[in-house]
Amino acid sequence: MSRKTSIFVRLIWLTILSILIFSLFRLPGFAKEALTQPSQPLPIAALPHSQQDPTDVKELEAFIDQFFARYEAEEIPGKVFILVKDGSIFFSKGYGYANAEQRIPVIPNKTLFRVGSLSKLFTATAVMQLAEQGKLQLNDDVNRYLKQFQIENNGFKPLTSTHLLTHTDGFDVAWTIGGATHCQSPLPSLEQFLSQNLPQRVRPPGELYVYGDAGMALAGYLVEALSGVPFTEYINQNILQPLDMGHSSFLQPLPPELETDLAVGYEDRNGTHQRTPFTCGKSVPSVALSATATDMAHFMIAHLQGGHYGKTRILNETTVQDMHRQHFTNFPTIAQTAGSAYGFYERFQNHQRVIEHGGSLYGYNSQLFLMPEQNLGFFVAYNKEDKVELRENLIEQFLDHYYPEPKNKDSLLEPHLNSELQQQAQKFEGNYRFIRYPQHSFAKLWVVLFGPRPDLHLKSNSDGTLTLLPVGTRWVQVKPSILRYRGGKSYLRFRQDNQGRITNMSLSNYVFVTYEKLLWYETIAFQQGLLGFCLIMFLSACSIWPINPLIQYWRSQSFQASRLTKSSCDSPRQSGDSSSLTRLMRFLLGAIGILNLSFLCGMLLVTLQTDYWEFFFGMPPIVTALLYLPILSTGLTAGLPVVAWLAWRDKHWSVMQRLYHLLIMLAAGIFILLLDYWSLLGFQL
User: Fold this and answer.
1) Are both 197 and 298 inside the same structural domain?
2) DSSP-assigned beta bridge partners for residue 338
3) What is the mean pLDDT of the chain?
C-alpha cells in the first residue's frame, strides 16, 4: 500500500469516527434538554375556592395541610408555614422534622431555618434606615461613602445605592467559587472581603436587573461604614432586637443558645437524604441570616404596618412606602408588569400586586411573600435545597384559592398583525441565553450548561408571528420591540444597541428573567460541533503517535525486501517521513492531544462526582490540578506553526500529510479559543 493511499484510508476512518462521536452529542445522555419544562402546580381540588382572603383559621390549616401532604417527610423532612394578617399572626404550623434522624419536630417559634437570600431584605431595610436619618443619599455615588477602597468606574456612570438595592448595579455575577467556608476559622471582614473580591463591572448601572450578591453585600458594607459598628451588630441592634426577633441571628456559626434549635439541612444523594454541613457565607449581608418562622412574622408585620411592630418603629411609613414601590422595570410603558422595589421584587398575578423574595442555601429553601394592599403576608421554609418548585406551587395555589381571577374579567383581544411591525419580526430571530452567569469565572460553563434556564431560540413565522423554542409558544409584536403572548398577558421586550442590533430580551412576568442574544459562534450547537471536531483530531493524534513506530518499522521492512529485487532506492522525499522534524511534529501533536483529552475526561468526572455546592468552599484540588493541563497544552500549541513551517519548507511531507497536520493544528487552536470563551484557560475564579 502506498503512503498516499495509507493516509487517505486513515482520513476515511477519521471521518466515520467523526460522525459517530458528533452524534453522541445529540443523545439524551450527552446533551442537556433545551428547556426545563415548568412544573405544574399540584391540584387541591377537594377544597372549595374562596372568594376573599383567609378569614377562617381552620379552613386555612386544611388548605396548607393538604398542600404539604404532597411533600411527605420522605421527600422534604421539615417544613414551616406562617401567615400574618392585619398586624398579627393569623396562623402558623410546623410539619415534619427539623432533624430527621432524631425525629425532632419543626416548631414555628423555636426551629431556626437558614433563609439565605432573604437576608438581603434586612440589609435593604438597614440602608433605608440610614437614608431616613440623612446619613445616606440613595442616588449619590457610593464612592462618596467608601473610605478604604473605591469602585472603579470602568467607563460607566457612578454607582448608587439605588442600583445596589434594585440589582441593577452592573457587577458581574460573582462568588460562586470560594464564597463560603466550613467555618473552621473566622470570616474575613466585609471590608477585607469586598476590597479583594469585588467583581468587575460589566454593564452600565441602571439598565438591566441581574440578580446577585455583590451589590447587596456592598450595600451592607455601607451600613457598616456609615453606622460605625459591624454589620451584624447593627442589624441586631436596629432590626432584630426592636422586632423581638430573639431567635434569629446573622452570626456564623450561630451562638450556642441558637445552634441546637437549627433545622438540619438535607440534600438528595444516591436516593437518600444526606445532611449538609453548616456553611459560613463570606457575603454576610446577602446570605447569613438564620431565623424562626415567628421571628420572620414580626419582620413581615413591621413592613405591612408601615414600619412598626407593636410599640416599636423601625422605619417611617413614608420610607416603607418608598421601599415597597417599583423603582425599576423592564416594561415602563406597560402597566402591571413585574419590577423591582428596594430589596423586594414584584409579582402581578390574579389582579394582585405582590412583593416577595426567595432564598436558597445549602440544604434549605424559603420564601417571603407580602400583599401590602391586603395587609397580608406569609413565610414558608423547609430543610431541602433541591425542591425550589414547592415555593412557586404554594404561591400559585394560594392566589388561585384565595384571590381567584374574576369570572367576568375582560377578555384580551387578539393583537392585530400590523404590516409594518410584521416586517420587523425577523430581526428578533436568534438564540438567547439567560443573563445571570459569570462572564469572567471558571463557573461560567457550569452555570450555563447545568443552570435552571437553558438557551432559547426565537423563530419568525410566515404570518409575522414568532415562535419561542423549544416550548413552542407563539408571540406577536404589538409595539416596537415589544411582543405579546397570543392568548395571554405576558410580554417580551427587546433592547438594541446603537447600531440597531438586538442585545437582549426580557419577560414581563418576572423582573429577573432577561436573556441576552447570542452571536452565531456562542450557541451551544455550534460549539458542540467545534468540540466534536477537536475531539476527533486529538484522538487521531493520540492514536497515530504510539503506532507510528510500528508503521515505520513495517515500511522499513518492505523497503529492505524491495531492495533485494530492485536496484533502485527510494527518493529522499520517500524516506523523509521519518525525519527529525516529522518526529518532533508528531510528538507535539500527540502530547497536545493527550493533555487536552485528559483535561476533558477529568472535568467530566469532576462534573459527575462533585456536588456543585462544593465549589462555594473553593476550587477542589483535583480541578486546580486539571487546570494546569490547558496551560501546558497552549504552550505546546504555540510551537506547532514553527515546526510545521520548517517541515513544509524542506518538503518533508506530502500534500495529504500537510492537510492532516493542518487539521490537527486547527483543532488545537480552536480548542484554545473554546477554553478562553468558557474561562477555563488559567485560574479565573
Assistant:
1) yes
2) none
3) 86
Q: Which of 463, 458, 472 is nearest to 422 (CA)?
A: 463
Separation in Å, CA 660 to CA 1, 455, 546, 574: 18, 35, 17, 17
Bridge partners of 93, per DSSP, are: 81
Q: Which residue has the cell 381571577?
A: 405
Looking at the fold, whether 11 and 105 belong to one and the same domain comes out as no
Domain boundary among 501, 518, 535: 518
pLDDT per residue as tens digits for the range 205-264: 999 999 999 999 999 999 999 999 999 999 999 999 999 999 999 999 999 999 999 999
Which strand (E) or helix (H) includes residue 8? helix 3-24
H/E element, 4:
helix 3-24
Q: Between 24 and 295, whose confidence is greater?
A: 295
Q: Please state the domain count of the chain.
A: 3
The CA R_g of the chain, rounded to the nearest whole Å, is 30
Looking at the fold, whether 339 and 222 belong to one and the same domain comes out as: yes
pLDDT tens string 431-459: 999 999 999 888 888 888 877 788 999 99
Residues 85 and 131 grouped into a single domain? yes
Q: How far apart are CA 202 and CA 289, in angstroms?
A: 29
Do 373 and 447 fall within a single domain? no
Residues 129 and 269 in one domain: yes
* DSSP state for residue 405 in the 8-state scheme: P
Phi and psi torsions of 391, nearest 5°: -60, -50
Q: Give the number of other CB atoms < 10 A from CB of residue 163.
A: 26
Query: In this structure, what are the phi and psi dihedrals at residue 434, rounded to the nearest 5 degrees?
Result: -55, 130
pTM above 0.90, yes or no: no
Give the ranges where 566-614 is alpha helix by DSSP (H). Answer: 572-575, 580-609
- DSSP state for residue 384 in the 8-state scheme: B
Angle at 181 between CA 178 and CA 184, to 5 degrees: 145
Closest CA to 371 of 392, 348, 390, 394: 348
Residue 31 is assigned to a structural domain of this protein: no
**Is 634 inside any structural domain?**
yes
Same domain, 449 and 528: no
Same domain, 463 and 588: no
Question: Rounded CA gap, 143 and 13, in Å?
Answer: 63
What's the pLDDT tens digit per position in 94-117?
999 999 999 999 999 999 999 999
Contact criterion met (CB below 8 Å) for 546 and 593: no
pLDDT digits (tens, 9 = 90+) for 525-584: 999 999 999 999 999 888 776 655 555 555 555 545 555 555 444 444 444 444 788 788
Report the alpha-carbon angle 280-285-287, nearest 5: 50
Helix 389-402 × helix 57-69 angle, to 10°: 140
Q: Say which CATH number the domain at 451 has.
A: 2.40.128
**Measuring CA to CA, how many Å separate 350 from each of 64, 70, 408?**
20, 24, 13
Contact 217, 117 (CB under 8 A): no
Range of the domain at 197: 70-402
CATH number, residue 116: 3.40.710.10
**Domain assignment of residue 566, yes or no:** no
Non-local CB neighbours of 591 within 8 Å, separated by 6+ positions: 636
Locate all alpha helices (DSSP H) within 25-156, ordered by sequence.
57-69, 119-132
Look at the alpha carbons of 479, 333, 124, 143 in this order and tell me if their dihedral is positive or negative: positive
Q: Please report, as a single letter, which amino acid is at residue 499.
A: Q
- Nearest Cα to 644, choosing from 622, 666, 628, 673? 666
Angle (CA) 58 64 69, round 5° = 125
- 45, pLDDT greater than 50: no
Q: What is the pLDDT of residues 46-75, one digit of tens each?
A: 444 455 789 999 999 999 999 999 887 668
